[in-house]
Amino acid sequence: MNLRAVLPFAHDTLRKVVRSGDYVVDATCGNGHDTLLLAELVGINGHVIGFDIQQVAIDATRTRLEKAEMTSQVELICASHATIPVYAKQPVRAAIFNLGYLPGGDKQITTTADSTLLSITHLMELLEIGGVIILVIYHGHPEGKTEKEAVVAFCTAINQQAFHVLSYQFINQQNDAPFVIVIEKRKPRQS
Ligand SMILES: C[S@@+](CC[C@H](N)C(=O)[O-])C[C@H]1O[C@@H](n2cnc3c(N)ncnc32)[C@H](O)[C@@H]1O
Hints:
By secondary structure, the chain is an alpha/beta fold. The protein has helices at about 5-15, 35-40, 55-65, 85, 115-125, 140-155, and strands spanning about 25, 45-50, 75-80, 90-100, 125-135, 165-170, 180-185. Helix content is about 35%, strand content about 25%. It has a 7-stranded mixed sheet, sandwiched between helices.
């Protein structure tokens, strides 16, 4: 297939937007794949804040970063991404949410609509002009369906003068195929 699958598309977008020295957020560390990519992209002069509510996910992420010798630019926080304003100390260039449950973990512990929407709202404030929030949406489980409906309704209503909002989706795939939403902050118009 020449078309990029959903997760590679999300990672390509991070590679285009994130530069050395940037300040970025992994809102759902899980096993740390996205955290590691962000750590590589920002380099030793940048900063990654990684959130997960499960200590097992924070530990898995730390192990992955240690193996790659990428710990110095990463701050791992075992708390909900809804607490982002407590930790984020400067404008954010990019944030990624990989929604759902920890692969190989407890499927009952998933992201939820309320905290996801609260975090997106905080991040829209914190985002730099040209910065992005990437949402990888898995909706094959019951909470995922509720969350998807809430996230799509929220994103569809975002002011188009302030943000570009893109949906990247294979519309003929069966079985609740995951998809990506990207929210990009626009330059304010001169009046
Ligand atoms: C699909 S996994 C993330 C996968 C991960 N990005 C990776 O590269 O392996 C979703 C993660 O979100 C975490 N999570 C659920 N609710 C959360 C919340 N409110 N704040 C932060 N993390 C949360 C879960 O514990 C789980 O580890």
